[in-house]
Input
Amino acid sequence: MSDKELFWKASFVPQVKRYPFARVPKIAFMFLTKGPLPLAPLWERFFGGHKSLYSIYIHSLPSYEPRFPSTSVFYNRQIPSQIAEWGRMSICDAERRLLANALLDISNEYFILVSESCIPLFNFTTIYHYMSRSKYSFMGSFDDPGPYGRGRYDPNMLPEVNISQWRKGSQWFEVNRKLASIIISDVAYYPKFLEFCRPPCYVDEHYFPTLLTTMAPNLLANRSLTWVDWSRGGAHPATFGANDITEVFMNKLHEGRECLYNDEPSLICYLFARKFAPSTLQQLLAFAPEFLGY
Output
């Protein structure tokens, strides 16, 4: 299917909310990658024993040919992909493509976007319960009055997008089925962002936060579930290598966190973390049972 056909088909939602069959809600794990999944063995361990509770979708460069064995959870999970460039609308197109493919499975209720450099910070059961029991979806969305927030707004976006609606947030999100449907069904905001949000306006930081804050603000927790480290400075968060993965570092992944979960204080704020280089795999596999629970 073309994107137009795919989004049209995926936009159909049940009008009768009570399903006429036994439905176990699943998490759709949507991997947005350039090619290989170097941390796949860690994810394989994380998914082990929970086959009925998750689905996997992979969007990579069109030229990449995966070589997962038939026994892998990632086998045959590639979706038809196109080139996606950071900061361009093509990256949001890739994310919408993942959402649309996942929406075609009526069992998918929660949709989480991750990259090849992401790791889960807890075992599958903890993450499933956290998502399924939340009243909100997790999309970073805030009003930044500075040059990297409102400073990127273009008045040509009027009347669909007013500067008072302009939001900024992390690219990495988790949404429920209703919000996923809003994202892939949008035809009003998309053309404005396509034409008027180009570098130095980075569309992946603004399009979905602005759209969902406008369309369904009461359904958002206004924070991401994916932790990154900005302490090293620069335009991109830190990438962790093999030498970074120590017991002290693993402890820090769970320390010093405080946020709201279902409007109550919580010490569990992030379920995933990035960016982990391929060289971290062996140390992560060794530390995961003690520090990550799988």
